[in-house]
Specification:
Blueprint: H1 2-8, H2 20-71, H3 76-97
Length: 101
């Protein structure tokens, strides 16, 4: 069991393969561990990229709304109410999108 976990997690162990069959099996196990770990890192990176993209889109939209408010001389009180509503709506939307597994 120690050997299997050490190989899947790309760790180091005291037991070494003694013949060609064991070496081949050990190589395959190392490759499987590499693929599993790489998949995990890839999934995490994709998730973080999606979050960054969503924040960038949100910032762009906020800037457009602020510019619209300035161009059309919308009262400050209404501008703040709209900004608060957008912030609340964005938080609710983000909570709904976060996977809970």
């Amino acid at each position: 069991l120690h050997w299997a976990f050490a190989h899947l997690l790309l760790g180091e162990i005291d037991v070494a393969p003694a013949n060609t069959g064991e070496r081949a099996f050990s190589t395959v196990i190392h490759l499987v561990g590499l693929v599993v770990f790489s998949s995990f890192v890839s999934s995490l990176t994709e998730f973080m990229a999606r979050i960054a993209e969503a924040k960038a889109d949100s910032s762009r939209e906020d800037a457009q709304v602020r510019q619209y408010m300035e161009d059309h001389q919308i009262p400050v009180k209404l501008t703040l109410q709209i900004a608060n509503y957008r912030k609340h709506a964005r938080r609710s939307t983000l909570r709904a999108k976060v996977p809970r597994e």
